[in-house]
């Protein structure tokens, strides 16, 4: 790990992920999480403020970056439910099969190298009928925007921890064997179009 990945990248990613358009998107989907929750890609804890605290019994926070976990400390200090850190990558979820009610993943499927393996692990950990609650940015439907996404993707990924601008979240979730129950896609107001096409929804294991 170098200076950039240890210090600059976590600060940059955390700053971008705290932007008002992103916070608005989080507020619309994070409250769907309930019961025993596994959040994959907890980052610096931006979702903590949006949980419906009365609905959560325990939170497993999977985040491999120690820098991100340190940044999250203040945001999780007053949570009224138990939080357990999982210091592993998304492809290595250590929980038992059928052990969680909700998997929450926000702005994370874009960064995982083996996203199919990670989604298979999420599906495995969910109870029968358990829910995948997701919020991701991805490939835009407009050809002009998509061309810019494809051009910028190599540089963007190097600066942003492997983030991809042009993945298709709904297709990834479907391929993993989830049944999508609700989904909405749109450009987030106030976000640049090349990184602002958002998809949020709920799928059943």
Structure description:
By secondary structure, this protein is of the alpha/beta class. It has one domain (3-204): Rossmann fold, CATH 3.40.50.150. The protein is built from six helices and seven strands; from the N terminus they run ααββαββαβααββ.
Helix amount, in percent? 25-40%
- CATH topology, what is it called? Rossmann fold
CATH class wording: Alpha Beta
Q: Tally the helices.
A: 6
Strand residue content: 25-35%
Measured between the Cα atoms of the first and last residue, the distance is 36 Å
Question: Layout of SSEs?
Answer:
Blueprint lengths: L2 H14 L3 H10 L5 E6 L15 E7 L3 H11 L5 E5 L13 E7 L8 H11 E12 L5 H17 L9 H7 L3 E9 L9 E8 L1
Parallel strand pairs: 1-2, 1-4, 2-3, 4-5
Antiparallel strand pairs: 5-7, 6-7
Task: Provide keyphrases for this structure.
7 strands; 6 helices; 205 residues; Rossmann fold
Task: Write a brief structural summary.
The protein has 205 residues and is α/β, with parallel strands linked by helices. Helices cover 34% and strands 26% of the residues.
């Amino acid at each position: 790990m170098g200076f950039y990945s240890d210090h600059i990248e976590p600060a940059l990613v955390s700053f971008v992920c705290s932007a008002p358009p992103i916070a608005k998107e989080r507020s619309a989907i994070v409250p769907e999480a309930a019961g025993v929750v596994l959040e994959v890609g907890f980052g610096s804890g931006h979702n903590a403020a949006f949980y419906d605290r009365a609905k959560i019994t325990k939170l497993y926070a999977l985040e491999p970056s120690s820098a991100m976990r340190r940044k999250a400390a203040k945001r999780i200090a007053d949570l009224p439910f138990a939080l357990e850190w999982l210091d592993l990558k998304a492809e290595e979820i250590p929980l038992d099969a059928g052990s969680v009610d909700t998997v929450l993943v926000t702005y994370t499927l874009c960064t995982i190298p083996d996203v199919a393996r990670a989604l298979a692990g999420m599906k495995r950990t969910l109870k029968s009928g358990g829910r995948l609650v997701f919020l991701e940015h991805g490939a835009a439907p407009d050809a002009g925007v998509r061309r810019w996404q494809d051009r910028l993707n190599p540089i963007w990924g190097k600066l942003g921890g492997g983030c991809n601008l042009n993945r298709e979240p709904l297709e990834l979730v479907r391929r993993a064997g989830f049944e999508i129950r609700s989904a909405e896609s749109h450009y987030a107001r106030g976000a640049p179009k090349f990184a602002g096409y958002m998809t949020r929804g709920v799928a059943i294991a």
